[in-house]
Amino acid sequence: MTAFVLSFWLICRRINQKKNSFNVTIDNIYDFAVGALLVSLISARIYYVLFNLKEYKARPLEIFKVWNGGLAIYGAIIGLILYAIVFCKKKKINFYNLADLIVPYLALSQSIGRWGNFINQEAYGGITNLPWKMGVFDNVVGEYIYVHPTFFYESICTFTLFLILMKLSKNRGFEGQIFFSYMIGYGLVRSIVEGFRADSLMLGIFRISQVLSVIFVVLFGILYFYKKSCRTKVV
Least CB-packed of 16, 115, 159, 234 within 10 Å? Predict the structure, then answer.
């Protein structure tokens, strides 16, 4: 919620700047934010449950107990994209303009939100002796173990991605450039970080988030260069 409120405030500030090429109003953002928060939470939960069906088939009521954990960021991202497409069509807003405006702050939100993993002692990686290792208490062995702080890896990488996207957005070459750059950038980040994690959602022998990340990098990389080749330059 801290990440959401901060990002919302920064987006509104950006809209009020004199040089604003996104053609999105604060009223649009207010309307979008209300639904976006709800949709992202629901879609993040659905994604997690779908890839843990064995666990929830025996106890279906656990699906609704989100306070016990189980939200997947890729579920939230996919849900937000679909919601944004519908929202923009209804409000007659250019989807790429809205997406270009929002995604830098989505990266910032992810950077902040990952510290929730640290507080909950979750989403960490395998055992390591590296100098930046993180100690967590393992209830199985009854002692501390030292692991990769994968939450921190992703937090640093997504904050760096935020800075890069903000720099790019000052001189957008074409509508959708920032959105495509985010999808490619986060796909690269997650495909690497996911390889260190010890709690990945699995589909057979494959890490689901890693596979999806590679697909996103390839798909949105192709879309980036296609859109760039037939671009409408932003003035």
Answer: 16
